[in-house]
UniProtKB/TrEMBL annotation:
Residues in SET domain copies: 146-285
Species name: Craspedostauros australis
Gene3D superfamilies on file: SET domain (2.170.270.10)
The name this protein goes by in its record: SET domain-containing protein
Taxonomic superkingdom: Eukaryota
Span list, region Disordered: 1-40
Start-end of Acidic residues biased regions: 26-36
Amino acid sequence: YGGQAWSLKPGGRDGKGVNAPKASDNDDDDDSDFDDVSGREYDDAYQDTIRQSDYEYADQIVKAMVQFYEESDGSIQLQHDILDFVMDHILPAAAGKRAKIIRSLIPSNPQTLQRVVDIGGTFHHRYSDMIRSEGWLRQNGMCVVDNIRVGRSTIPNAGRGAFAQRSFTKHEIIVPTPMVHISRKQLERDQQQPQLLLNYCFGHPESSLLLLPLGPMATYINHSPKPNAYITWMATSDTKGLTNRPYWQDKSVEQVLRKKYVGIVMKIVALRDILPGEEIVLDYGNDWQRAYDGIRASDTAWPLKAQDLRRRHRDRLPRNVGMACFIRSEYKVLRYNRNNQQITQFVETSPRGEDLCIVDVLARHAGNYTVLARVSLDRVEQVENVPRTACTFVDRPYTSDLHVDGALRQVIRIPDEQFPLAWRDLR
């Protein structure tokens, strides 16, 4: 077309190339707008799923086209012809299966491309209504993030709790919470060891339907026999854009469980005036209180935990505690042991969570260890000269407090007067 040459290939000529990420069919770092298919082999089933790299690729094409137009003299018709040629011939050759979806992100009008760059790229152009004015947000939005904060609970042995960030008047909404509907059977499949998720679900003893709250920090609200808040159904007029389907309360449990999206919204409401800094607490119901009291009454000494062992520095480890080391070994293999496992040298580095490996101590030396470390799912290495500063104690899998036999597993009860009759399928 008489303009300067450029290419969609990475590092094109004369600085005009689009240094785009490779539009392969199995990028592990991609994030999807509509589905999470990260780390899988992409086949035709995911061909039309938009991924993060598609936006990045489209952005670089748009920027290159804008720059090309600025540096080349041509009519509007010529700009259309060039853009059509790139979309029809160059993009399919460079992007393969991803060309179709990448093309859908790029406006067909060349005169629109500069505006795409100005507003921040193809993602912002595609979802231009994501950024709203303060006036629109005040009218249609609901700010709940600053309502409560998480801190150490004032209730003994309760761990963390939710605290008021500001004052609330009686009957004021503290936080709305969409509820995920779950079948009780899924969490109680193993009667001896029911799922921990039960402790966070709301339900009723006469129903097999459980509701898991998704509201910000709602799961941190603890139980108290003297509550200052209660949970109830969200009115349609209060939801302000949240998907709320009150008519689901007239459907059977089976019908609700068939729904593949969240349609139930509840709200935590102030039972009385609440002051800033006051812990927000609910009444979990008599069923929960009896279950908790039963656990406390039968409570015996807990197994020794890793934190205790760090203080006591015992040499022999109990069965439920293991030793772990922050290990980064040299790539060079020093030699192999009799089990044909690599022997490598410890590399001094600051601890990182991803480098923490469960180990077996083979030998203790003055100030360091020789250990057998599982450095990946499929590789075990013998590592020498591991300093004590790189070692710690951890709970072995399924031995922490969460997995102790007889630990509390009890649903939070929704009061009888609020729970729908249509959902009481266990009566």
